[in-house]
Every structure is written in C-alpha cells, then in structure tokens.
C-alpha cells in the first residue's frame, strides 16, 4: 500500500513521459526543449489528439477558433454569485454547461472553454463586460485580447503559447489521473475535464503560482529573502514553487518558462527588475532548502516561473490556476480518449482498517 500511489503504475500512455531522475519531459516523442518557444498551442494539442479522433484535421486552429466563438454564448449564463469566489469556480461552472460527448466537436469546445470562460470571469470580477473571441487570431493571442480588450504584441502571444505548450501534458499527475478515472467510467469528455479542473484547483497541484507572487511581494527586496524564507520554514510552511513529487532534479518546465519570461522582460509587461529580484529569491531559497532538507533534493518547479510569466502578461494571481487549465486541458482530453481506448474501468482496492462489526 502506498498512500500517494507513488510506486503504482496505473496506465500505459503514448502521450508524455516525465523522467524525474534526468529532469526531462517528453511529449509524444518530442522533448519539451524542442517544443517550448517553437510550437503553437494548437500544434501541440493536435500532436496530443493524433490517433484519438477519427476526423482530426491537419490544422486544429480554425476548429478551435470556431469553438471559442461557440462556447462564448455560455458566458451570458455567468452567475454573479460566483464572482466573489475563486475564478476556477466560475470557469468550472460555465464549462459544466457544455454537453458531454466523446467526439472532436466536444473536444474542441472543451479546449476552448477554460480560455474563453476565464477571460470572461476575470473581466466580470473587475466590473468589465466580456470581450467576444476574434477567430482570425491564434488561440494564445485571442486569450490575451479577450482578457485585456486590446491586441497583444507578438512577443506576449508567443510567451503565452510557450506557457500553454509547457503545461499541456505531464504524465499521470493528479488532475490527469482524475480525468482518466472519470473517462474510464465512459462518463464523457466534459465530465473528465471537469474532474481535471477540480483536481488542479488544489494548492498542492495547480494552485501554487498565486502564492508564489504573495511570497515575492512579502519578501519585497533581495536582502530580506534569507530571513523571510528561514522564518517560513521554521513555522513549518512549504515554499511555494519548490519541490516536486517526481522530479528529483530541476523541473525542465521551469527552464522553458524562465527563458520565455526573460524574453518578455526585454519588452512589454514585466515590472522593471522583477526577474532579477525573483532570481535572487530563487537562489536564496535553493541554498536554504539544501540546508533544511539535506537528504531531499528540492528544486524550482514549474509554478515559480509560471507566476512571473503570467504576472508579466497581466493575469491576476487569482486566475493563474485557470490559465494552467487552458493548457492542461489538451492533455486531459487526450488521456481521457486513451483511457477509453484502453477499455478498462479504473477500480483499485482499499484495505479496511475500521472496527469489525459487533458480533450478533
Ligand atoms: N518547501 C519546504 N519543504 C518542502 C517543500 C517545499 N516546497 N517540498 C517538500 N518539502 C519537504 C516536506 O516538508 C517533507 O519534509 P518531511 O519529510 O520532514 O515531512 C519533504 O520535503 C518531502 O516532502 P513530500 O511532501 O514527501 O514531497 P511530495 O513529493 O509529496 O511533495 C509537493 C511534492 C506537494 C509539490 C511539495 O514539494 C510542495 O508542497 N511544494 C510546494 C507547493 C508547490 O510548489 N506545488 C506545485 C507543484 S508543481 C505542480 O503541481 C504543477
């Protein structure tokens, strides 16, 4: 028995491989280094979907753009009672309005949903009207436009594309496993994606980048980093943006996003000096974690540079998990289809440790 299932192999997959010892992520035969910064989200989604849908077009972009427009109709149903809550809850509620199904049209609507609904929820929370999709734009550029109301620079769209590609799939992480469990019951893609969103919401999975910003803001200046981090660890807190269940060396996604954020730092978005400050905090954290846990390799994870990248693109920290879902939804859909093709209901065993019934 293993509480966190770390040693349990629960699926064969052609989708991605996380090599935690070497710090390598492979997505359908390509290393993340090959894809990040060079491929658009639509292309990686197609790569992931390949073989799982009969009628897959050579280019997913037009179908995805049309799906953005289609799901936008649901935005009018946004319940204002949801606006005081975590944006994931609003985005999830609108996604739940989509019909379940297993075909490509359902998959494209689900691929579009977190993007369109998050932009609408964030704007509604700021008292702004939603911005309808522009189907002439690529997915990443349109997300930024639906969020801010103005066309992004090519550099900003490329940074978001890098992010979406980087988080598109990652082995049998908690949200992907949740999606596969649901898909194995034949509930349909919408149900599987809703399960993925719900698992991603937790702070130990997709909910960490918001707290990374809080940490940086509380630290304030590089000189305060050591004292702040030591006090946090002394309280028994975990440093957000560090550590990973599988990676025992550096998370390769952190490097891909660091490169993207540095490219942005030269241009629009980033606050002056923000990246240099974050790098100083990162260096202090790594040195202190090494002293704190000498036998446990703890390195920077994807969430640390996610926080900086999404902050530079003007996403509010409360919506960072939603942006993660915009990318990971491609993986959830492909895994759900792969699980259905595998044909087996996921149904593990438990060991009963409660009291025995009283003798009659
Ligand atoms: N800061 C301080 N100590 C840590 C950290 C951290 N970020 N991460 C692990 N540790 C410590 C634990 O306290 C534990 O110490 P103990 O043995 O004395 O109890 C030891 O290292 C091992 O930790 P585990 O909980 O066994 O490691 P696990 O593999 O379960 O944790 C996790 C992985 C949950 C990501 C953890 O590193 C963490 O909480 N990190 C901070 C949150 C975070 O950044 N989450 C995003 C992860 S990336 C993603 O989901 C996309």
Automatic annotation (TrEMBL):
MF terms in GO: citrate synthase activity
Pfam families on file: Citrate_synt (PF00285)
Keywords, sorted A to Z: Acyltransferase, Transferase
Pathway recorded for this protein: Carbohydrate metabolism; tricarboxylic acid cycle; isocitrate from oxaloacetate: step 1/2
Lineage of the species this protein comes from: Bacteria, Pseudomonadati, Pseudomonadota, Alphaproteobacteria, Caulobacterales
Organism listed in the record: Phenylobacterium koreense
Signal peptide (residue range): none
PANTHER family for the chain: CITRATE SYNTHASE (PTHR11739), CITRATE SYNTHASE 2-RELATED (PTHR11739:SF23)
Keyword Transferase: yes
Catalysis performed (reactions): oxaloacetate + acetyl-CoA + H2O = citrate + CoA + H(+)
Coiled-coil regions listed: none
Protein family: Belongs to the citrate synthase family.
Protein name stated in the entry: Citrate synthase
Keyword Cytoplasm: no
């Amino acid at each position: 028995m293993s509480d966190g299932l770390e040693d349990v192999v629960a699926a064969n997959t052609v989708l991605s491989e996380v090599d935690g010892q070497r710090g390598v992520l492979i997505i359908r035969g390509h290393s993340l280094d090959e894809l990040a910064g060079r491929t658009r989200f639509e292309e990686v989604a197609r790569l992931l979907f390949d073989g799982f849908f009969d009628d897959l077009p050579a280019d997913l972009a037009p179908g995805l753009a049309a799906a953005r427009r289609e799901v936008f109709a649901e935005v009018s149903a946004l319940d204002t009672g949801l606006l005081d809550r975590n944006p994931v809850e609003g985005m999830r509620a609108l996604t739940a309005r989509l019909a379940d199904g297993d075909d490509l049209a359902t998959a494209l609507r689900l691929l579009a949903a977190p993007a369109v609904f998050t932009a609408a929820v964030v704007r509604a929370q700021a008292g702004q009207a939603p911005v309808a999709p522009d189907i002439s734009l690529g997915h990443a550029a349109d997300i930024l436009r639906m969020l801010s109301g103005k066309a992004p620079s090519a550099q900003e769209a490329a940074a978001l594309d890098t992010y979406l590609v980087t988080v598109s799939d990652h082995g049998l992480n908690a949200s992907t496993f949740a999606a596969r469990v649901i898909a194995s019951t034949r509930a349909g893609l919408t149900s599987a994606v809703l399960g993925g969103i719900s698992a991603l919401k937790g702070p130990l999975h997709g909910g960490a980048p918001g707290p990374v910003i809080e940490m940086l803001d509380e630290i304030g200046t590089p000189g305060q980093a050591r004292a702040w981090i030591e006090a946090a660890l002394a309280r028994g807190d975990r440093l957000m943006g560090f550590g990973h269940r599988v990676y025992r060396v550096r998370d390769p996604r952190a490097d891909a996003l660091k490169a993207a954020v540095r490219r942005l730092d030269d241009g629009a978005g980033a606050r002056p000096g923000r990246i240099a400050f974050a790098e100083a905090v990162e260096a202090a954290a790594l040195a202190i974690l090494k002293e704190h846990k000498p036998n446990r390799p703890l390195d920077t994870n994807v969430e640390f540079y996610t926080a900086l990248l999404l902050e530079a693109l003007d996403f509010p920290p409360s919506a960072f998990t939603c942006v993660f879902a915009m990318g990971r939804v491609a993986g959830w859909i492909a895994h759900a289809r792969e699980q259905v093709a595998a044909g087996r209901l996921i149904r593990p065993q438990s060991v009963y440790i409660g009291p025995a019934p009283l003798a009659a």
